[in-house]
UniProtKB/TrEMBL annotation:
InterPro entries: ATPase_dyneun-rel_AAA, CbbQ/NirQ/NorQ/GpvN, P-loop_NTPase
Domain ATPase dynein-related AAA: 82-222
GO molecular function: ATP binding; ATP hydrolysis activity
Pfam families documented for this protein: AAA_5 (PF07728)
Spans traversing the lipid bilayer: none
Name of the protein this chain belongs to: AAA domain (Dynein-related subfamily)
């Protein structure tokens, strides 16, 4: 069943791990949480669980700042919301899904913020056929994820909150202050109080539209955590390999993982993001976002190509072409910056390190 879906929710994808953690959890638990903060930590950052049958390994899912993850969990156990901010592709959404699935068993109770998000989508709306037939009643009410979260005592996720106009975002303020949502149309029955366990996880991208687009009043109701890009090349390589492996498995692509190719990509992304090579040469940063998520996608495109058109071996020419598409989609000047990176850094590594870098360097002619 599960593999028929492109991206099963975290609680389904990791159902076995969550069950193991739950069955063997003897840590202190906030009211209405499925797992203790200790077990949530193990689920996200990996570790071992003692079970009657022996130790069970839980793999790490989020790489980078472990203390940030702990702080997020503690925030969620309290009454302030959690706001994950950062550059695109730094796993803010992934982290918010992991947290929701682990603490509440549901990661899909989500509002997607867009320029078109309205107050109804945040609070509640009506099934108009029922509203006309029966008048305002519970049955005719269409609750928003926020209302569902309040009534069930689970998290509501608010994705890309700053893409929503600030005055619409502000409808969260009263809920977050009083933990109450009033539905005046329902009269005496219209007062919904948030059950314990309810909280909000927001994500906001610092690139598209800044966090400054949020009102001060709303900001004060959230604890902010900035998720930074992965700073370690070998970690980034590990993420690329692991994510691409998962995607390949889901897409029934049976290509062996090419760690050399993952390394080339991880180094390229890292150095272009930092504006400096490991040898200390300064390189111009492209305007495009050099995120790990993009690197994963470039790698996956390359192995998909190898699977469907090639002999299953990743072709570095295809890799470079995919890189070109990913880096140069926003700004024409980025092409020159990518070319310059190949002329300097890649060429230097081809001489010094050799191996796959030599072949990679030869693909520079495809950058046009
Ligand atoms: N620190 C990290 N640990 C694990 N995976 C990561 C990390 N950083 C990035 N990734 C990879 O990048 C993917 C993209 O993450 P996600 O979509 O959650 O990013 P985002 O921060 O929400 O981006 P956007 O701002 O564009 O919405 C993840 O699914 C994962 O494969
Ligand atoms: Mg996101």
């Amino acid at each position: 069943m599960e593999q028929n879906y492109i991206k099963p929710p975290v609680e389904i994808r990791y159902a076995d791990e969550l069950k193991t953690l739950r069955d063997n959890d003897n840590g202190k638990k906030p009211e209405n949480w499925l797992l203790s903060p200790k077990a949530v930590r193990t689920f996200i950052l990996g570790g071992e669980v003692d079970t009657p049958e022996g130790k069970v390994k839980i793999p790490r899912k989020f790489y980078g700042n472990d203390a940030l993850v702990e702080r997020c969990i503690i925030t969620l156990a309290g009454s302030r919301g959690l706001m994950l901010v950062g550059e695109p592709g730094t796993a803010k959404t992934m982290l918010s899904e992991l947290l929701s699935a682990a603490c509440c068993g549901v990661s899909t109770n989500t509002v997607q913020g867009t320029a078109g998000t309205t107050e109804d989508m945040i609070k509640y709306s009506w099934n108009y056929a029922l509203l006309l037939a029966k008048g305002p009643c519970r049955e005719a009410l269409v609750p928003s994820p926020l209302l569902v979260g309040m009534e069930k005592g689970i998290f509501a996720r608010f994705e890309e909150i700053t893409r929503t106009p600030a005055e619409i975002q502000d409808s969260l303020i009263s809920v977050m202050s009083d933990q109450i949502l009033n539905i005046p149309e329902l009269g005496d029955e219209g007062l919904v109080q948030a059950k314990r366990g309810f909280n909000i996880i927001g994500t906001a991208n610092t690139r598209d539209k800044g966090v400054n687009e949020m009102s001060g009043a709303l900001k004060r109701r959230f604890n902010f955590e900035t998720v930074e890009p992965v700073s370690d090349v070998s970690l980034e390589k590990e993420i690329i390999i692991r994510e691409a492996e998962n995607m390949a498995k889901a897409g029934h692509i049976d290509c062996p993982v090419d760690t050399d190719v993952a390394e080339l990509l991880a180094v390229t992304y890292h150095e272009l993001r930092e504006g400096k090579t490991s040898e200390g040469t300064v390189v111009e940063k492209p305007a495009a976002v050099m995120s790990t998520a993009e690197a994963v996608s470039v790698y996956y495109q390359t192995i998909s190509h190898a699977w469907y058109y090639g002999d299953g071996t990743a072709d570095l020419g295809i890799l470079t072409e995919n890189l070109l598409g990913a880096v140069c989609k926003e700004n024409k000047d980025d092409l020159e910056k990518l070319k310059a990176y190949f002329r300097t850094a890649v060429k230097e590594k081809a001489k010094k390190v050799g191996g796959a870098w030599k072949e990679y360097s030869k693909t520079a002619s495809l950058l046009r």
